């Protein structure tokens, strides 16, 4: 699995400069490391639930986090078994791109639930219906967390310090769960920001750390509705992103009482929802 997390390719690096600023001043061909991206089909009781493009690794966490974020499971005890299947092979070798999950007590997701999950994974019908659906499925009351600027200012760099694959590739997202005073609990990387968040949530679920009401979810990406949704379903009271927040993310954070921070830097950030300590 580790060998598929990154791949090396010969690339041509072109530098511009000169008096015009757009003249080709250097052309160099060398090996470059890029982030791995492969499909993962997640099945429940033999039914295909979703296929996501992800960076191989921590797939069990990803599946648990996804099922929890979509409201299909509430605890580790809801899952009887998660195993790779041989349905996806290349040259007779298992690619480990097909994961089948068996729920406890033969609680197989119905086709109606399956259609709902696929719809939610893409987008909601509208902002209002998306927030209402989240409020119906949410199982945790979110804590009110006063925002400590000194802690928030440190989180982007602390997340970056744990991004080993980003340092190699420059093209991969990260999600991290941090304590309220800024200590990292778990950091996961993936080409998909939603997958990175699900891996973190899945890890916390497997460690019996949900609800995450004493933790902060930190993202290397923008803050979308789906990330706020996943954070809320896991009980996070604060989401910190290094980039912008979408309108529906802000509306959802305010509706659920989640503290939402965007454009987090060492010397500044935007506070979209919540109050300063």
How would you portray this structure in words?
Helices cover 31% and strands 31% of the residues. The chain contains eight helices and 14 strands. A six-stranded mixed beta sheet has the order 10-9-11-12-13-14, with helices on both faces. Strands 4-3-8-5 form a four-stranded mixed beta sheet. Strand 9 and strand 10 (184-190) form a beta hairpin. Helix 1 crosses helix 6 (193-206) and helix 6 (193-206) runs parallel beside helix 7 (225-234). The radius of gyration is 20 Å and the shape is flat. Mean pLDDT is 87; it is low at 118-125. Required for formate dehydrogenase (FDH) activity. Acts as a sulfur carrier protein that transfers sulfur from IscS to the molybdenum cofactor prior to its insertion into FDH. One of its GO terms (cellular component) is cytoplasm.
Describe the structure concisely for a colleague.
This protein has eight helices and 14 strands. It has 277 residues and is α+β, with helices and mostly antiparallel strands. GO terms for molecular function: sulfur carrier activity; sulfurtransferase activity.
